[in-house]
Amino acid sequence: MNWMTITWPMVAAACLTLGLIELSIGLSHHPRAPRLLFALSAFTVACVSGLELALMRTDVFAEWWLFTRFLDTAVGIMLVTLMAFIWVYLRTGRKWLALAVPCLYVMGLAFDFLPWAPPGSGMTYQSFSGFRLVETFGGASFYVAEGIPNPWNVFPYLAVLAQIAFVADASAKLRRSTGERRATVVGGAIVFFFLCGGLQAALVDTGVLDTPYMISWAYLPVLVAMSIELNADVLAGARLAGVLQERERHMDLACSAADLGMWTWDIGRDSIWASRRARELFGYSASESIDRARFFRSVHPEDREVTDRAIEEMLARDMGYEAEYRVLLPDGRTRWMAARGQIERDGSGKPKLLRGVVLDISARRGTELELQQLRSQLAHASRVSMMGQFASALSHELSQPLGAILRNAEAAELFLEHDPPDIEEVRVILADIRHDDQRAGSVIDRLRALLKRRNFAPRALSVSDELANVAALARSDSSSRKVRLEIDAAPDLPAVMCDPVHLQQVLLNLIINAMDAAESVQAARRRVTVRARSRGASEIEVAVSDSGPGIPPESLGRLFEPFFSTKADGMGIGLSISRTLIEAQGGRIWAENNAGEGATFRFTLPLAESAKPS
Ligand code: ADP
Predict the structure, then answer these.
(1) DSSP letters along 161-199, please?
(2) What is the pLDDT of residues 496-512, one digit of tens each?
(3) Residue located nearest, by CA, to atom 11 of ligand 1
(4) What proportion of the chain, given as a percentage, has pLDDT over 90?
């Protein structure tokens, strides 16, 4: 045991240690290639170090020849892995120089493996002549092989020169373009390694220097350079972790201030992570594992389909996830939640993660519900008041069939008194009575439908039918006011999606307003026209025009405001309610003055799904 047998293994151990560290980082973190290539080069240098030690301790020819060929091969592998490392680590370099390295080295290495050449004749020596024992300081000694140098040994040295040029060029290029420190530190250390290692090997090969090969020693600066870089990476990582922690604290603060719960759904593994607040909101325990099926079990059965559709749509298309649904809590209560999320895809575009937040919106929903109830009460009140305006016309409408029934009944009595009774005539009279009764019944039915307090219930319906119903109600009022009421609905109008009572209410309100306006002109010119037409492929437009004085410009912008009225006995809520009702069905309502006389009020309604062209 002397200083030589201790120091070479120490160099090998240093290479192995850093190699293992780089290997473990490379296996678990991206980018992998530079770390793994560097680990491979460090392991190869550890082998080189072992072979250098073996060569200096042997004076057996067969062993020397075997170790020499191993060493030459290991050096070749080390050259190529370092070249590849620089290529991926600095992400630059000249291709032709990189390719020259393995080509030139293989041309020299081939001499070690020529099948016809005698043993000992290889890359370094043409022929081997013997060993010489060299004494050195500290009482240590080593063997040096001697022989006639092979002139083709120039190839591996050219490979080393190509390598130096390649690394120096790549480092300088990166340094110039980005000023990155690693270009100087790592690139410089590798250039130094090849310069010193190559020069020292050349001097030993030519017999100028009486030392063992010390290629592995020259690698030590590379180890130091990589350790510095690793250290810098670790420090940067620690700094980043600090920044992330700070951000996380900010995020937590923001979430708790906004009362948001956070969640992440790992789509591949079907597992959902939920923050403490999110678990509280859904009624999950702290340790309960959550997947898609568990989440759906906690969603209210009536809302499962919409929630599922929102998720599927988001997965299929690149859109954000937005859903509002009720959650069933373990104690039987329900809670309204609003969820927003964003999808994250992998490199191939496949959905990977869905991240988002949930918010308890029960309070807002409660207020909305109350507001909706108030609105429907107001709409009801407005209908009742509208019917009040109709009262006299309607009593007239009802008195007609009732009077006819009375007269017919009296006539029937008379016919029955005949001897023999005129049964045929009585039958005709009874048919008339039935017809009049049905007429009166249908007026009462329509009124009852309008006056009943009920909830919003949209369905597919025909605008023409509803127009006919409303016209039947308004007809007697219009004739008593001497206003011509014309209904013009295009035949075969597609069905719209709407609540029938709401639609009738809006139509009645617009028609009554139009008749009010028309009444202010001469009786002969009083006219109200209601037209219904298709508008584009997805809507129907209804227009109520009158021959009145039109809308004063200063009122145009205020017509739909609540309590805006220019009438002495007006409440000013008809148009504002009409707007609420139409917008609730997904339509729009507006007013304009006609080019000639009067004004036109228009509204649109979306077509029912079944009526849309496919
Ligand atoms: P009200 O009929 O009780 O006044 P509305 O909300 O139905 O309440 O109407 C508000 C106002 O809009 C009316 O007072 C009137 O000034 C104006 N208006 C409505 N329809 C017409 C119309 N066809 N022509 C001119 N002005 C109209």
Answers:
(1) HHHHHHHHHHHHHHHHHH--HHHHHHHHHHHHHHHHHHH
(2) 998 888 898 899 889 98
(3) 565
(4) 56
Q: Which of 149-158, 296-305, 449-458, 600-609 has the lowest mean pLDDT?
A: 449-458
Is ligand 1 within 6 A of the CB of residue 553?
no
- Span from the CA of 465 to the centroid of ligand 1 (angstroms): 25
C-alpha distances (whole Å) from 601 to each of 363, 471, 479, 571, 579 are: 37, 17, 21, 19, 11
Does the CB atom of residue 572 touch ligand 1 within 6 A?
yes
CATH of domain 259-360: 3.30.450.20
Residue 325 has pLDDT above 90, yes or no: yes
Closest to 71 in 3D by CA, of 53, 86, 98 = 53
Closest residue CA from atom 21 of ligand 1 = 513
The answer, yes or no, to whether any atom of ligand 1 lies below 6 A from the CB of 575, is yes
In short, whether 186's Cβ falls inside 6 Å of ligand 1 is no
- What pTM did the predictor assign? 0.52
| Closest-lying ligand 1 atom to the alpha carbon of residue 576 | 6
Determine the distance from the C-alpha atom of residue 304 to the mean position of all C-alpha atoms in its chain, rounded to a whole number.
Answer: 21
**Cα–ligand 1 centroid distance for 513 (angstroms):** 6
Lowest mean pLDDT among 200-204, 422-426, 474-478: 474-478
Whether ligand 1 lies within 6 angstroms of the CB of 589 is answered as: no
Position 442 pLDDT exceeds 90: no
Task: Give the Å distance between the CA of 565 and the centre of ligand 1.
Answer: 6
pLDDT attached to residue 486: 94
**Position 390 pLDDT exceeds 70:** no
The domain limits of the chain are 3-235, 259-360, 368-455, 457-614
* CA–CA dist 559, 567 (Å, integer): 12
Q: What is the pLDDT of residue 455?
A: 66
Query: Strands 321-328, 334-345: parallel, antiparallel or unpaired by DSSP?
Result: antiparallel
Cβ–ligand 1 distance for 570 under 6 Å, the answer: yes
Q: Span 457-614: which CATH code?
A: 3.30.565.10
Decide if 3-235 and 259-360 have a common fold. no
Q: Which fold has domain 3-235?
A: Rhopdopsin 7-helix transmembrane proteins (1.20.1070)
Ligand 1 site, residue 514, Cβ cutoff 6 A:
yes
- Using DSSP bridges, classify how beta strands 351-360 and 496-498 pair: parallel, antiparallel or unpaired: unpaired
* Residue 95 Cβ contacting ligand 1 at under 6 Å: no
Q: Does the pLDDT at position 118 exceed 70?
A: yes
Instruction: Establish whether residue 557 lines the binding site of ligand 1, counting it when its CB lies within 6 angstroms of any ligand atom.
Output: no
How far apart are alpha carbons 507 and 10 in whole angstroms? Answer: 97
How many C-beta atoms lie closer than 10 Å to residue 50's C-beta? 20
How far apart are the CA of 553 and the centre of ligand 1, in A? 13
